[in-house]
Amino acid sequence: MPALDPIIVDPSPVWFADGYALRAHNTFGFDVRARYACRIDSESALTDAVRDPRALGLPMLVLGGGSNVVLTRDYDGLVLLVALRGRRKVREDADAWYVEAAAGENWHEFVAWTLDAGMPGLENLALIPGTVGAAPIQNIGAYGLEMAERCASVRAVEMATGAVTEFDAAECAFGYRDSFFKREGRDRYLITSVTFRLPKMWQPNAGYSDLSRALSEGGLTGAPDARAIFDAVVAVRRAKLPDPLLIGNAGSFFKNPVIEAPQFDALLAREPQIVSYRQGDGRVKLAAGWLIDQCGWKGRALRAAAVHDRQALVLVNRGGATGADILELAQAIRRDVEARFGVALEQEPVCL
């Protein structure tokens, strides 16, 4: 596959001084520092960085937008700041457009760009914070769509060898908020670009109640187009979720737990109002935000760490909180949810 035509062309890595501040590189806004940091604008810059004498023997951390990480302390290693840029239509066939975006591209801006170019399919994932390179790691999803459904391939560099590999969607081993890159590939590969397959036979996906309500309130009659869905998703997310630029957060902190049908039936008998979604395999997905809210945590704080007052899935830094504060709050929430519902919550962000 041809390389991207980057907006930024810098074949050499850009190193930053010892003790580089990472406050601007994590959406919680934690005031931690890295022993070294290096801006990666190209695949060759990555290869040069990991082979640099300063990097020998050091652990490495990849950061894009820093929207899915909890930094609990200074990082005594090399932080690779992903800054690869570029986006383009690679090809098309009778069924789909294939669009490639570099890992450092802002995710929401990329989604908007695909719509402006007349290629719908990602609109339900609008306004999710982070970069394109982070999307396959977490298999981001919202309002009835997961990134895996639109992924054609992922291009990544093995940091130890500099070898470039193209992973097809099956090789990415996507799961619910999960992938090969979050498990076996973690700390081994750095994603440099992602290619998406956007179907020409587009169908609206507007079944979620919040989304359909927003479309109705916008005066829409008839089937929505992709732009209407995009605008409705943006409106819903802005109404419910805090802007990381205004208050530190990493979006949804907990996954929606999926439990077996017998466990759900017993739980439903005790909690008839529980919010749930039947899955194709017979299991049941529970709304983690509802569970947390029922335990009385929405809006509560533990020092400067708090649960957002409009969305119980979101933990926030009210100012001066540390990563340890956020994790202490998360653990208290987990204990209460498990005590009442017998359900274990799993956090989404990676903890370091």
TrEMBL record:
Gene Ontology molecular function, alphabetical: FAD binding; UDP-N-acetylmuramate dehydrogenase activity
GO cellular component, one term: cytosol
InterPro entries: FAD-bd_PCMH (IPR016166), FAD-bd_PCMH-like_sf (IPR036318), FAD-bd_PCMH_sub1 (IPR016167), FAD-bd_PCMH_sub2 (IPR016169), MurB (IPR003170), MurB_C (IPR011601), MurB_C_sf (IPR036635), Oxid_FAD_bind_N (IPR006094)
Keywords: Cell cycle, Cell division, Cell shape, Cell wall biogenesis/degradation, Cytoplasm, FAD, Flavoprotein, NADP, Oxidoreductase, Peptidoglycan synthesis
Protein localization: Cytoplasm
EC nos: 1.3.1.98
Domain FAD-binding PCMH-type residues, every copy: 29-201
PROSITE patterns xrefs: FAD_PCMH (PS51387)
Biological process per Gene Ontology, one example term: regulation of cell shape
Metabolic or biological pathway, per its Swiss-Prot or TrEMBL entry: Cell wall biogenesis; peptidoglycan biosynthesis
Active-site residues (renumbered): R177, S252 (proton donor), E348
Domain of life: Bacteria
Catalytic reaction equation(s): UDP-N-acetyl-alpha-D-muramate + NADP(+) = UDP-N-acetyl-3-O-(1-carboxyvinyl)-alpha-D-glucosamine + NADPH + H(+)
Predominant location: cytoplasm
Cofactor(s) the record lists: FAD
Membership in a protein family: Belongs to the MurB family.
Functional description taken from the UniProt entry: Cell wall formation.
Protein name, entry field: UDP-N-acetylenolpyruvoylglucosamine reductase
Organism this protein belongs to: Paraburkholderia dinghuensis
Gene of this entry: murB
